[in-house]
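Q: How would the structure tokens look for this protein?
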Amino acid sequence: MGLNDGYREILDAIASDSPTPGGGSVAALSLAHAHALVCMVSRLTLKSRKWESGHAAAELALESSLVGISVAIELSHRDAASFDNVIQAFKMPKSTDDEIIIRRHAISEGYLNASHVPLETAKQGIMALTAISRIAATCNANAITDLLAAAYLAQNAVIIAGLNVKVNLTSLDQEESELLAANIDSHERTAVRLVDEIGEIVGGRM
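A: Here is the predicted structure in token form.
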């Protein structure tokens, strides 16, 4: 099947009592799985002349998702690291006024970065859904449900990443908080629209 102890190690790390890797990293890993399925569907399309009309779109999707897997894995690492930085900021000394100011700044910067990383995951999720929508009508119909599964995984990445943005909003200044909230809301609405469109296409080909 191709699964090995390394895969179990990832799940064990998530299942541990450490707060990282957590939901944000899982969102990025969900996106990586979406890209992996897109690669599979694209390759199954390209290997058969029957689906020649979809070869050009499949080639583009394959190229995009091969890069997307690496980007998503990197986002998973970055998300864990960003929250680790928040935790470390809270542990900074606060015995003097200067230490309090430095600590407060580190916490603020930590929360800001811990919000931008999942926001990027959500953005990448929208890019994946857009790519999926472009191959849904012409890909190998025998793998069409795998493509819809990829779409749901990408949407879940957007939703989960959104949660990790929203939970930090009260820790940010109002202008930054409002901007992040508007961005994630836009990504979530776009994801719903794209998944609905993909679902209609898939339903018509099943």
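The radius of gyration is 20 Å.

The chain has a mean pLDDT of 95.

Upvote if useful.
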